[in-house]
Structure to design on (77 residues):
């Protein structure tokens, strides 16, 4: 499996999520490098999307993020 870059991720979000469901006012994510990169940060600023990052080393927040991701994946199918 090939690895994804921050630029790839931004393009995937725009093409597959934002174009079909509109722009969110905010995105909640953990602190994975893809979501804290300058490319992702700049793209969110351009689109006026605030980013809410979970607290580092806070498993409860990461668990909440993972649960929301599962719900979104199910909803988007």
């Amino acid at each position: 499996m090939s690895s994804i870059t921050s630029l790839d991720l931004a393009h995937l979000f725009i093409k597959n999520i934002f174009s079909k469901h509109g722009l969110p006012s905010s995105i909640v994510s953990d602190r994975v490098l893809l979501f804290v990169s300058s490319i992702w940060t700049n793209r969110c600023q351009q689109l006026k999307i605030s980013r809410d990052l979970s607290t580092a080393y806070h498993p409860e927040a990461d668990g909440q993020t993972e649960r929301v991701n599962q719900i979104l994946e199910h909803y988007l199918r």
